[in-house]
Amino acid sequence: MDLWHAVQERLKANRQGDKVKAHASNPSILAGLVFDERGERLTASHAKKRAKRYRYYIGTQDPSDQDQDVVRIPANELEGLVSQAVQAWLNDGSKVMQAMSSGSARETQDRIEKARALAGKIKESLRLHLAGCIRRITVGPDRVRIALNPAALGVAEGLGAADEDPPVNEVSVKLGRCGMAVRLIVNTTEAGSRRTPDATLIALLAKAHDWFGELTSGRIESVAALASKEQVSAGYATRLIHLALMAPDIVERIVRGEHPPQLTAAKLMQWMPLSQDWSEQRRMLGFG
Q1: Do 73 and 177 touch, CB atoms closer than 8 A?
Q2: Higher-confidence residue: 197 or 227?
Q3: Residue of 226, 221, 251, 222 whose CA lies nearest to 237
Q4: Given this model, what pLDDT does residue 225 score?
Q5: For residues 117 and 50, which has the higher predicted lDDT (pLDDT)?
Q6: How many whole angstroms separate alpha carbon 79 and alpha carbon 29?
């Protein structure tokens, strides 16, 4: 049994290392740091559909509650939310000062500047700098609580010892189901709450404008010819081209990640063609 337990610990360590290894093309950078409100760790996992890889942080099933809805949060959404929240905290001089135990005016200013510099580094590379700033992330039904790691913030002298209560940043959210996954619907009135733009949705819009340009320029003579060239049905090509007729402000908000979380690429394609009235488009797509 001792040998068996030793092997299980080694396998567990190897799996954990594989999720965050430095040379991974798209690592789960918050692996080991995310917990649900019960204190259970969310495991980094992924699924593949064709050539695309989808990453998640997944909760565990409570054996005593077979009807429990296991949390399954898209990794890009959670990582984007946490990144924005940590950057917002580091850029807020008043919060940095409140977390300091002591220090002269010069020391305080130096630490505030270091915190802002660290926020810039996180913005440049989440993989290299984000995880080290965090001690623990707790995902609840209405709030994500991010306990920061004082020793790694670059201002450790003023933020107290590692065993003291860490500074905390909280973001109001709502866990909303969208397909098979739970989405983080963020209270956008709070700082640092913008979600990561939906790459699939943006790519779909880009393709729509490319195909629309092919037709309007005369390089392709008809929708049927375009569909044949792209090896899709004429109906699909027609629906996709209609995306190029969406209101410009809707497109801009999608690119910035400010669209409703329920608005996915698949859902948008189902609603094609939209009304030519831009006000009606905003109402139908949930832009107010």
Answers
A1: no
A2: 227
A3: 226
A4: 92
A5: 117
A6: 8
From edge to edge, which strands make up the β-sheet containing 143-148?
34-36, 134-139, 143-148, 168-178, 181-186
Rg, Å, the chain Cα set: 23
44: number of CA atoms within 13 Å, CB side?
22
pLDDT tens for 57-85 read 888 766 666 566 677 788 888 888 888 88
Cβ pair 232, 204 in contact under 8 A: no
Mean pLDDT computed over every residue of the chain: 78
Task: Please tell me what DSSP assigns to residue 272.
Answer: P
Whole-angstrom Cα distance, residue 199 to residue 257? 9
* Percent of the chain at pLDDT exceeding 70: 76
User: Rounded to an integer, what distance in angstroms lies between the CA atom of residue 215 and that of residue 224?
Assistant: 11
Spatial separation of the C-alpha atoms in residues 90 and 98, rounded to whole Å:
12
**Of the candidates 32, 37, 57, 36, which has an alpha carbon nearest to the alpha carbon of residue 47?**
57
